[in-house]
Amino acid sequence: MQNMLEALQWRYATKKFDPSKKLTDAQLGLLEEALRLSPSSLGLQPWKFIVVSDPAIRAQLRKAAWDQPQITDASHLFVLAVKKNVDAKAVDDFVNSTAKIRKVGPETLSRLKEMLMGSITSRTPDQAREWGSRQVYIALGILLATAASEGIDACPMEGFDPKKFDEILGLEALGVESRVLAAVGFRASDDPAAQSVKSRFAKDEVIIER
Amino acid sequence: MQNMLEALQWRYATKKFDPSKKLTDAQLGLLEEALRLSPSSLGLQPWKFIVVSDPAIRAQLRKAAWDQPQITDASHLFVLAVKKNVDAKAVDDFVNSTAKIRKVGPETLSRLKEMLMGSITSRTPDQAREWGSRQVYIALGILLATAASEGIDACPMEGFDPKKFDEILGLEALGVESRVLAAVGFRASDDPAAQSVKSRFAKDEVIIER
């Protein structure tokens, strides 16, 4: 594991993966666990993460993603998906799960539940989904940071057809919609994108002191 | 620096900070640099990060954030803000900055510019701002992961009045809107929230294999 700033300097949106290099089970498990532990507003975790390894499915997905080779050539494809409805049921699921983890009855969490319900019902379904989508992007940030810190390459991707992805992956039945992708694996030694100098605004253009 | 999974287990949304414990300059610089290096779609970095240390300003902000003590008691308050307009000018700024970094004339990046313009102009201003907001949440994820990996506590916060924050911080003039906060510093030894068992859905509820 490398220092986080070194890791963030080292990482880049990998365009050409080495298809022969696969994540070990330990590396895959670590990335999955990082996603599972990702923070979210109110702790509600309005998401599911689909880890696609099947080559036939990935060939189909590639067609729904502008034929981008990362989809099939990376070791694994992570599809980050948001719950379609962040509603009373989502709150119930979370409160029941929390009660189980903390080994208490759900009724002892009634104040938490009330607070969550108040927050959730203040949003329209569209607003709730957009709020949920933002949370998914926190998880994306955690995934990218974790991968880089472990020397694992990744390419975050928004360029795909979410409806087709949902269909191919059967996400309707899971109550989620695909939102953003991360192809994860190891860079090909001749990826031209690896040679580009990282382009970031200068510190004084993005960090403002008050 | 700790292993990322240990760090993600260790971190929690800190409710009570120790006001006497401050980030060192090195720690502050590291968090700022992690934000600056955060990935974003197309590399456009549609954001600014406001680092608030002034106690008088933070007292005002606290009033616009449900009087939450983290706002004033944490070592620093990070306000993550999105560009109001992700438009042709934002693309120009990025292309010019990239040309400078790569020591080439902006005209050599005309294909990149064309691609970015195509992508940007396909969105309505509202869609562009929402897309930008999602990117800001990647930076939030990167910030939280980096802080945790360095043993620095943080509390991500959505509960505040963005319009009032923008006014107090003078963000209108910078062309950005506050989107999400992270209070950053060190937990008080008696923060009750530190005692709560972390509540996350079980692996098979969030990780789906295909």
Structure summary:
The first copy, chain A, is α+β, with helices and mostly antiparallel strands and 210 residues long. Chain A contains 9 helices and 5 strands, in the order ααβααβαααβαβαβ. At the A-B interface, helix 1, helix 2, strand 1, helix 5 and helix 7 of A face helix 1, helix 2, strand 1, helix 5 and helix 7 of B.
Provide the descriptors you would attach to this structure in a database record:
alpha+beta, 210 residues, NADH Oxidase, homodimer, 9 helices
Global geometry of chain A: globular
Mean pLDDT of chain A: 94
Distance from first to last alpha carbon of chain A: 34 Å
Q: Give the SSE order of chain A as H and E letters.
A: HHEHHEHHHEHEHE
CATH homologous superfamily designation of the largest domain in chain A: NADH Oxidase
Any idea what the CATH architecture of the largest domain in chain A is?
3-Layer(aba) Sandwich
- Estimated helix fraction of chain A: 40-55%
- Which residue ranges of chain A are poorly predicted, with pLDDT under 50 across at least 5 consecutive positions? none
The side-by-side strand order for the widest beta sheet of chain A comes to: 1-2-4-3
How many domain modules of chain A? 2
Strand content of chain A: 15-25%
**How many individual β-strands of chain A?**
5
CATH topology description of the largest domain in chain A: NADH Oxidase
Task: Give the CATH level 1 class of the largest domain in chain A.
Answer: Alpha Beta
Specify which chain pair forms the largest interface: A-B, 70 and 70 residues
Major sheet summary line of chain A: 4 strands, antiparallel
Oligomer: homodimer
Per DSSP, the total helix count of chain A is: 9
